[in-house]
Amino acid sequence: MPSCIFYGIGEQGSGRCGLIMGTQICPKCKRNSFTWSIDDEVSNFTSWGCHQCFYQAEENESDECICESCGNKTKMKLKDNQTEYWWCCRCNKITLIKRVLK
């Protein structure tokens, strides 16, 4: 049995588990192709990725909280190499926390 759990669109024969979940609206390109995966051997964070624009971000599930816009516990903190922000996967509201200066 593989050590990773992958939810999303996986390539056949890639060695990833083939469980499929619904896609979300990507915070970057706004297309319905944002999915998540977990690999305990690589990171303790949840990895999010878009299958259209190839945007990637990480989520620490302990930061999940109730969204003030829709009232659901679907607001999470995502971080990429340029920004850290709150994103609600239900109503797609984004609140910038900080930008990483290069």
Commentary on this structure:
There is one protein chain. This protein has 102 residues and is mostly beta strands. It is built from no helices and eight strands. The radius of gyration is 14 Å and the shape is globular. The model is unreliable at 1-20 (pLDDT under 50).
Give a brief description.
The protein has 102 residues and is mostly beta strands. The chain has strands at 5-6, 24-25, 32-38, 46-50, 56-59, 75-79, 83-88, 94-99.
List keywords for this structure.
single chain, 102 residues, mainly beta, 8-stranded antiparallel beta sheet, globular, disordered N terminus
Form type: globular
Structural class: mainly beta
In total, the number of strands is 8
Overall mean pLDDT score? 81
How helical, in percent, are the residues? under 10%
Largest sheet data? 8 strands, antiparallel
Radius of gyration: 14 Å
Span of the ends, CA to CA: 41 Å
Number of helices in the DSSP assignment: 0
Stretches with pLDDT under 50, minimum 5 residues = 1-20
H/E topology pattern: EEEEEEEE
Portion of residues in beta strands equals 35-45%
What are the SSEs and their pairings?
Layout: E1 5-6, E2 24-25, E3 32-38, E4 46-50, E5 56-59, E6 75-79, E7 83-88, E8 94-99
Antiparallel strand pairs: 1-3, 2-3, 3-4, 4-5, 5-6, 6-7, 7-8
